[in-house]
Amino acid sequence: MTEATEPQAVGTPKDARPIKLACRNVWKLFGSNAASFIRERDGKASMADVTAAGLVGAVRAVDLEIRQGEIFIIMGLSGSGKSTLVRCMSRLVEPTHGKVEFEGNDLLKISDAALIELRRHRMGMVFQNFALLPHLNVLDNIAFPLSIQGQDRPTREARAREVIELVGLRGREHFYPRELSGGQQQRVGIARSLATKPEIWFLDEPFSALDPLIRREMQDELMRLQTMLHKTIVFITHDFDEAIRLADRIAIMKDGEVIQIGTPEQLVVNPATDYVAEFTRDVDRAKVISARSLMRACDGTEHGGTVSPDAKIASFSASIVASGKPFAVVNGTGKPIGEVTPQAVIGLLAGLDKPRVGA
Amino acid sequence: MTVTANASEARPPVQRWLLVWALALAAVLVVFLLQDGLPWAVNYPAEAVVPVADWVSALMRWIKSNLSWLTRSITAVLGVPLDFALNLLAKSFKIGHGADAYVLPRLSWVGVCASAFIAGHAAGGRKLSLLVGGCFLYIALFGQWTSAMLTLALISIAVPFCIVTGLFAGIWAWRKPWAERLIISPALDLMQTIPTFAYLIPMLLLFGNSPVSAMIATAIFATPPMVRATMLGLSRVPSEIDDFSEMAGCTARQKLWRVLLPSARPTLMVGVNQVIMLALNMVIIASMIGAGGLGYDVLLALRALKVGEAMEAGLAIVALAIALDRLSQAIAHKQAKGQTHQAVSPVFWRRYPHLTLVVAILAATTLISLYVPAFAAVPKAITFTTAPLWKAAVNWITINFFDVIEAFRVALILNVLNPLRAFCEGFPWLGAVALLGLAGYQLGGLRLAALVAALTAFCAITGLWEKTMATVYLCGISAFIACLIGIPIGLAAARSDRFEKIVTPIIDTLQVLPSFCFIIPVVMLFRVGDVTAMIATVAFAVVPAIRYTNHGIRQVPPALIEAAKVSGCTPRQTFFRVQLPLALPEIMLGVNQTILMALAMIIICAMVGTRDLGQEVFIALSKADSGRGIVAGLAIAFIGIVADRLFNAWTAKARARLG
Fold first, then answer.
1. Interface membership of A116 toward B (CB under 8 Å)
2. CATH of the domain at B574
3. Residue B448 domain-assigned (yes or no)
4. What is the mean predicted confidence (pLDDT) over B73-78?
5. Count of domains for chain B
6. Do the Cβ atoms of A123 and B247 come within 8 Å?
7. Which candidate, A196, A195, A190, places its Cα nearest to that of A121?
8. C-alpha angle with apex A165: A160 to A171, nearest 5 degrees?
9. What pLDDT digit, counting tens, does each position of B470-492 carry?
10. Res. B641: pLDDT tops 70
11. A with B: how many residue pairs have Cβ under 8 Å apart?
12. I need a surface site. Which of A32, A329, B147, B472 has the fewest CB within 10 A?
């Protein structure tokens, strides 16, 4: 019981940040009369209803809130609707029903001109296959969104050079996309989407087309950029390891529905369904689970050290096992709120705790 | 269990179709045998002929008398750039009138040849430079310069016109699906299947016997590939690039012109290449209505049966065609590969060295030509003619092999062509409508059946049934022979890389040649008649059969062939049980193309005395009888459309079955 309430507490401080983007009962159905179908049912329909009506439910009843500055990951296998959902958020795809709120304003109600303005200055997007323009060189590709806005050449090129510097592509300004490796091309894609200084940054499986080593390098690069830029990021992936590495929170999608939203730790410790549990099974738990989830009340034994409640088990597993004594879990003021035993850590590393967590 | 159940479920429809076909064929046979009793079913009754031709003539007369202000102004507007190009390349500018006229010279041939070398070098390196420059030098040295430049001038004005029109039509069709379905797509089908001759008649009527009407006919004929390339290119732009342009905040116009069209550039360049080649083809044919140039030379020589001169002009067309094709293909290829970075220099002549050099050379040589006559026109002393050589060769062949050739010709006519022709011309029109309709129903349902039957019936009720069947017979046998030759060559090319290396350049060249050129050598040997038409058509139409067969076999996924090998197939089994069935839809597409090309060629062969719809158009052209020509042209187009739709439906079915 305590576990069910404790992880909620992990998210509590983050909730203080304002909501940047929210989906309220968003639906995207394909098929004839999809709009009237969902309107008649007042935005409520089961999978069976949708199928019976001969429609395809790409996105169904999605409710989520993305807070400013967080990395929000939408995770799902191919065909789960994650790409459609992110396109609904940016209105590349017009949702059939529901609201998409950008800072509280319904994105679906604004005019085309306002939408263009919004996309030009406040949204950026990175694509799986880079979507670079083959006829422009790196510099012109990156400056393209600025030139669309009508900025003059010196201004936009100065800005483009800034972001080229930022993503480490200096010296390649005059190369054409086909002369670059996949990783370099995606750096161009990232630089291009950053050139307009967007507030919200959509990344649609940005690293899926890259090979594993480069992918890891690019993930590190993204984290480095995020510590400097503090963007609100919506990141799509089908790779759960990638999600766990990067996410503040993860939404797991299946068949167009979001089946669970939570921090990586919440998903691992408390999967909502067997489907989520299946995903989390092979995760390196020590890197996800924090001391808070593993601690128990102090029973008076001597402590070998102290850790913060948010510290991941992997960060102190070696030292706790070496010391052979429980570590005290202390909060911000240095007051112990519980302890973690070496046995619990060993159990976690050996995978003994799974039945307990899964139950 | 399920397998047998499926099989027994699948059988009845097949058997039913067999039965239906047997009954239908039997019924047609009965009509054929009883033709004395049922004459109206065999030959369409003359008194019931719908006078569509008269209606069209009346309409054209009305247009001519009421819209002459429009046609005149079009002629005037288009005449300006056309005259400029003609003067620039071929005729020289004359300012003022009479004796005190001042003459600005045309571009010097030396300069144009040098530009051809440089253009080849810029687009594809030394080899291409030698090829393109060599072709131009050939034209100059063989005394065809002025004619060739007239042809080139027409092309150079018609092509940009086609490209711009095609681009906008393609964009419109891509933006508005209803426009594509209702207007563009049917229009393209008609434009490409109506024989080239048939275009000439209304142009002649509306715009007179002038280069302008030739140019308009050329533009109509050569625009479709650009429209198709634009539509294809735009629809092929990756959806992510489309999404990106939206997310960058492009307006609809910015998206189209700055993102989509540049991204589609490789496909567009393929369209440009096709436009150039079709324009060349058409400019040659349009020489009949005043285009002048090389086509006119061929026409004059053929009419006078001067084989040597015809051959020379024909070879100059070939040289021009090869030069233009290789040059535009190299540019398209370069576009497809994408650009590479290079240091950008702010100085104009450093940034565009080739262009600067070309302009400089053209200016310098043309200036020199003011004082040195050898630069203005190719001096007689350095040109040579091969006409006597060709004449001697033909004479030698005729003297030594006359008996063989004549025996072959007569045997072909007596044993193959005449019986087939008699069969086709006696074929009941009602039976043809019914059988084709039935085929349409089986392959594509009621709509296709109605279309096919209606188009076939059109040929009969306009009173052209016999001529239609004459066309079908000649086209059919030519296409059949072309497939008989082409498919085995394609199969062989698919199985041997070395053979493919030999075949590819040959069919590339054959494809580039304007249809006119095929007639010349054949007519030298076989004189006029059906045999000549057939042989020229086979040579012209064999290319797609080879190309599609080769491509079809080669595109079978290697994984499937490996799977077949692993399951223990012998090479023979792999070929017959795996490759051939999978390649069949593609091969059938090639057969379809072969038939359409044969049809186009048969019509042009009216020049060598066939007696079919082509001759009908040809006569109408010489009499400027627009109604007769257009109706015959439509009948030809409808034959093509019927064949095309049936084959496409069949291929689509086969494709669907293969998944």
1. yes
2. 1.10.3720.10
3. yes
4. 85
5. 1
6. yes
7. A196
8. 90
9. 888 889 999 999 999 999 999 99
10. yes
11. 76
12. A32
